[in-house]
Amino acid sequence: MTNIAKQVTALLALTSAISLSSCSASKSDATSGAPTSTEAYNSLKQELETLKAENAKLKDQLAAKASTEGTSSTSEEKAPVQEFSDITGGFGEKEIKTLVKLKVIAADAPVFEPTKPITRAQFVDWLVKANNGIRPAKYFIRTAEKDASSSFSDLSSNHPDFPAIQGMSNAGWSVGFMDKTFKPEAALTREQLIAIKAPLDYQQAGLSNYLEKWQDNSKISKNCKEPMNLEAFSGHNWERVFGKTKNCDPQKTVTRAEAAVCIYQLQGGSNAYTGADPQGGQ
Q1: What is the pairing mode between strands 271-274 and 265-268?
Q2: 56 in helix, strand or coil?
Q3: How far apart are CA 31 and CA 27, in angstroms?
Q4: By the 8 A CB rule, do 127 and 275 touch?
């Protein structure tokens, strides 16, 4: 029995006792002229008042507890997305915050480390999540199951980013190297970022050679020349991420902020889809 139930029971018993005592006292007064109150009656009445006060206090405590729990639950449900403390005013701030809201980037740490190099594995994981969350369903890339066979000799199915990497490979996108390796923990380079991302955006073949726009184009790896050639146009990934540059410095590592800015926008035919308007508002 709860405290309140016990209190109520006691209150009822005492009320009855006082009522009976009062009746008895009235009868006695009528026949014998005895005093209208007795010590027993006064004692019961005092105890009743004490119980009433305690009961009221318990009700207040329960009401306060219920209110606190309700507020806590509401706060948890409406808790704002965690914001990184090291991106304010920096390159890619808007894109990073939007990608966190879309659950492309996990806000599981107090800092984002925007200038830190991103690994090849993490970039592909972000890219697949961004693709599936930003572009329409017809561009969906299905992630691989955890028990699927790996297409790469150095990538285990136990790797946390395996589903995304193997999913892209299963879908026919070239994300690895000619020797059947993926090098998941290696830092992503500029030319690799373009080689993985650009084919998703632009399916163009037979283009003229536009690589000469970069004075150091001879440094571009052979297998990256074709996708890099797609990036010679205004508004494409290169210009959005690195700006208008005379040199491409193809082997320079890509930062986490640069990677976020890159995947924030994906092309689909003649349409550009961004994190600010996922799936074109569909």
Answers
A1: antiparallel
A2: helix
A3: 6
A4: no
pLDDT 10s digits, 64-112:
565 555 544 444 444 445 689 999 999 999 999 999 999 999 999 999 9
For the entire predicted model, the pTM comes to: 0.71
Neighbours of 211 (CB within 10 A): 16
Residue 256 C-beta-side C-alpha neighbours within 13 Å: 20
- φ, ψ of residue 182 to 5 degrees: the values are -120, -25
pLDDT digits (tens, 9 = 90+) for 128-187: 999 999 999 999 999 999 999 999 999 999 999 999 999 999 999 999 999 999 999 999
Q: Calculate the CA dihedral of residues 9, 12, 17, 23 and round it to 10 degrees.
A: -170
Distance CA(190)–CA(58), nearest Å, equals 67
Chain-centroid distance, C-alpha 111: 15
Token pair recorded at residue 190: 């500029």
Q: Take residue 148 and report the two structure tokens written for it.
A: 């699927």
Question: Which residue in 272, 278, 275 sits closest to 260, CA to CA?
Answer: 275
Residue holding tokens 């700006």? 243
Alpha-carbon separation of residue 201 from 99, 119, 170 (angstroms): 18, 21, 18
pLDDT digits (tens, 9 = 90+) for 223-245: 999 999 999 888 899 999 999 99
Mean pLDDT of 12-38: 49
- 8 Å CB contact between 187 and 123: no
Residues contacting residue 153 through CB under 8 Å, at least 6 positions apart: 179, 180, 181
